[in-house]
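Quick entry between incubations.
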Amino acid sequence: MLLTVLRAFQGRLRWIKIKRKYNVDSDNVYVIMLPDSDRTFNEIALNHIDDFLSYRKANKVVILTTDEWVFDNAHNFSNCIKAVEQITLRDYYYYRNYCYYYYYSFSDQFIMMSLQDLYGKRLALAEGVSGIEKTDMACMALYIIRNWSKKEACMHG
Amino acid sequence: MDNYEKSRVRKHINRLAIQDMLKDKNIVLFGASGFSKDVLMCLEERGFTANAIIDNDDRKVGISCLGMIVKTPEQALMPFSENNLIIFYSPGFYREMTAQLERMGYHIDKHIFALNFQINDTLYMFTYMTKTKIRGLYWHKKITCKHSPNCPVFIAPYTGTGDIYLIGLFFHTYLKQQSITDYVFAVVSNACKKVAEMFNIKNIYVLPHQVGDDMISLQRATGQEFRIITLNDGWLGDPLQWFRGYNGLNFEKMFRYFVFGFDDTIPHILPPKRDYSHEIDGLFQQYNIVKGKTVVLSPYSNTLFDLPDDVLASIVNHCKQQGLTPVTNCAGTEKPVTGTDAVFFPLNQAIEFMNAAGYFVGVRSGLCDIISSSTCKKIIIYDKNGLFYKTSHFDYFSLKKMGLCVDAIEIEYSNDVKNECLHKIKETLK
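Done. Structure below.
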């Protein structure tokens, strides 16, 4: 329990640092965590950054990732990526602990895009159920784009 | 909203009233939901009312809600007016809603009042959440101390009795499948406990307000150090909630697939039949009602939907003309429908009571799940305009679609089809 508190607190410190570094509040920036090694899912998440920003009426995103491919390629997916930071696994665990420390997320502006950890694992069970695909999981359940429609997304490319 | 939260909302509104912040204001409720119903009730207690109700969901815009037509935020709040005062209760989405209103020029604590508990990244909140972890840890130890080490704790965190009924249908199969012999089952109200007891669920604890959330949060934060299983289809920010109603995923399927991990082959196990004949006889004698000729009205629910008084009056008159006795199922401070007497029966006797009564006419609520296997004639009424996540109330909660009941008459009601609905109800009550 004490370790959990300490890790969550470390996560908070890192969050406050990132918030200040990228002016998250004042510049309407979202921080997206991409910790998974699943390239398909990461591509989907990156592909829909613009849909996410459009829905949330936000300006830019900062990406935090442990994955090298994401770090190298994220900028190819959107012009609205302010920065991509590669973080260590330890740092990810600190963020993760902070993320799950409260009843709800500590901030609307922090999005955990994962199908491999905690809530993500449970969400991953939905794949294939009633036609649910990874795109749906990313856009409807994690980005929470409430008017998300696969057909419309395809039309807009 | 549970009683603790209602009390919190009431205190907040009282404070606003005392500070004269509500006087002469154009009060706008944000969110066409059950929460707004509770907020409006608290406002009316202080002699105020809302002038408009807004929602971002364009499926809700234009429909009637709490006596007002739902508008978009832009329709009701632009151009900016100093006189507008926007009130809402939304634990999960208040930040998004606040940000939207701030972009329209409104300010927190001047025009914008979110009445829910507000989580943020301050040090104060971190300290508060640490206290809740300690509280969760204390309660976990308290309820598991007499059980085997690492015994699973099942938590049903929502006050809905319908949830407990649905859980009960799968619970013992789950225990068998997981080879669980010792467990603790935690609920958040005595009514939920009664429903759990119907299924012979053992070791039931009724947790104080918010302790269930503390324990769930503890389990999440510690990375499953504690064997705590949440019995809900999308609690406290669980992203699965966004698939409610998607492509036919109704209430039953969400629990079946995602709470218990079952496929469609697993059958429901109904609560065992018990002999309450002595108790039922006593109740019928107490209320002076006749078996087979009693219509139990259940007009109350936790949702927005209320049947209009004239519709209820028409049903009551029809029953009397048919030689049936209408009564109203009332709990707590609920009042009976005009022209009927109040009755109360314990939830664990509900099936047997309804078998004896003969007829049930009710707005969709948890009680409908509980009596779904009763032999009585059941008329379940849904709000035709009611929405739930990705679908309608009816499609998500229909007893027939959930496989709980094949013989219920399920009616989607709205004022423009009032006569057809009444006709259908009266045809059944003969």
